[in-house]
Each structure stands twice: as structure tokens, then as C-alpha cells.
Amino acid sequence: MDINGSFVKIDTTSPFSIQLKDEEFRLLATFIKAHYGIHLKDEKKALVNGRLQGVLQSLNMKSFKEYYDYMVADKSGDAVLTLVNKITTNHTYFMRESDHFSFLKSHVLPQLDKTIRDKDVRIWCAACSSGEEAYTLAMLVNDHFPMDWDKRILATDISTKVLNQAIEGIYGNDRLEDLPKTWLNTYFRRLDSERSVASDSLKDQVIFRRFNLMEENFPFKKRFHVIFCRNVMIYFDQETKTKLIHKLYDCLEWGGYLFVGHSESITREETRFKTMMPAVYQKV
């Protein structure tokens, strides 16, 4: 999950342009941080303004304060889901930061093959976005372990918009170009000259769920052998990041691995993780 920091141009001459005031931005930023951990700095004000213009217009609202009050009062939760979908931009692609997948294939999976006794390999893709990372993990795991293993991947995100895209499993053919030909032939079916869809067998291997990493208690009955939580914590402040790292540590089996984004890091002072390679840590 990424927040797009690109400049958003607001047309102040438009009769439908509603300007986000500083105090309104602080209200929204405080709400977002409290519920989703995302720390919106002041320079994100223009982005928030631009992303929510259409929402306010569709609701025929005159100010962001009116929108904020409406969102907080909405018992259905739909207004909050709309906010999350609007302010989060999920930038990802197949085999992103490919050295992580190489390490998983060459070191982690062979180790799990030797240590797992119940043929149940548990992997969590904790910010799955539109599904590319989760499907990549599923293909790697499927290639390594025999048919009689439970190899399903849990994939979660806070955005229902990208989760629906992931479940649909349709991708532009240009986004699949870097995948091995064997994967393309086995796991994808060409829809037309521009798009392909993930096979039913691949989709069945990934369980997509909406989940907020800011939940106080994680509801998992079993610990994971591998957690991918990449390019999420860069949007958290230090306190939020440290709390999440501790929870992820507790969710791992002993000897399990945590993968974070290359722009993220964990210090020894924060947790008991052992650094294995850049942005890869082992629970010891």
C-alpha cells in the first residue's frame, strides 16, 4: 500500500472546487492516523483536497467539515471505506524488489521444506494491494511444494477497491512481461491483446481479506512462517511502526521471516529480529 506524493493541481476557478482548510485537513489527518496509522504530513494537503473533490460533489456538500461530520456519523462504515480508497494509491507490480523473491526461493522455502512437519506452509501478504505480490508468492510456493501441501496465501489490505481488483485477477499484458513463460502458460489466460486473467487454480490459492494493520489484536489462530509487509511502514510515524513490528514478530513462528520494503528498515533496538539481508529479517 503507497500514498502517491505527486502534485495534484486544483482548479480554483471551478464552481465545484471546495478548498480544504488547515483545520479541516488536521481533522482528517488525525482520523486517518488514529484508525489506519497513515501519517499525512502537511504537504499532503493538496493531495487530499484533490482526491476528495468528487466525493464532496457527489454528496452535494459545501465544506470538508461537513464531509468529516458525515463520515464520522455514518454507522454503515461505507463513508470511511470511500475515504480509505480515495487517499491510498497502491503502486505495485509482479516481482517487485525481485531479490526478495530470489531469497525466498533459494533459502526460505527449502528451509521450510525441511522444518515444517504438518505440510501446512503459512504465508501472509500483509499489504497485498491489487494482488501482484500475493500471486507471485503463490506461484513460487506452488512450484516448490508438492500437491499434498496446504499452500494457500493469506493476502490482506485496507482498500476494498484494490482487493476487488486482486480477486478479479485481470492484468494488462504489459504488466506480465517479466514473468517466466512457464508461469504465463500455467497460471494466466489471455483475454485479448491487452489483458490476461489469473487462472482459477491460482486464484484459489490466495485468500483475499480486508484487514487493518492498526487492529489492536490480530485474530490469527496459527503463526506464519513468512510475512511480506512491504512499503507500508514508510507512511507510519516511529511509534506506530514500532508497535506494528512487535505485532508482526509475535505473528511469526520461531525462525520465520519478515520481508519489508527496501526503503524500510528495522533496528536491533526496536525488536529481536535478526537481519538476514537488506529488508529481510528472521525471528530468533
Written overview of the protein:
- This protein has ten helices and ten strands.
- It has two domains: 22-87, Chemotaxis Receptor Methyltransferase Cher, domain 1, CATH 1.10.155; 98-283, Rossmann fold.
- The radius of gyration is 20 Å and the shape is globular.
- Strands 6-2-1-7-8-10-9 form a seven-stranded mixed sheet.
- It has helices spanning 22-36, 45-58, 64-73, 78-87, 98-115, 132-144, 160-168, 181-187, 200-204, 238-251, and strands spanning 123-125, 153-157, 170-172, 188-190, 195-198, 206-210, 224-228, 252-259, 273-277, 280-283.
- The model is unreliable at 1-15 (pLDDT under 50).
Distinct helical segment count:
10
Low-confidence stretches: 1-15
Distance between the termini: 27 Å
Number of strands: 10
Amount of beta strand? 15-25%
Largest sheet: 7 strands, mixed
The CATH architecture of the largest domain is 3-Layer(aba) Sandwich
Order of helices and strands: HHHHHEHEHEHEEHEEHEEE
Mean pLDDT: 89
Radius of gyration: 20 Å
Could you please say which CATH topology of the largest domain applies here?
Rossmann fold
- Spatial strand arrangement across the major sheet: 6-2-1-7-8-10-9
CATH homologous superfamily identity of the largest domain: Vaccinia Virus protein VP39
The total domain count is 2
Range of helix content: 40-55%
Q: For the record, what CATH class of the largest domain applies?
A: Alpha Beta
> What's the overall geometry?
globular
Structural class: alpha/beta
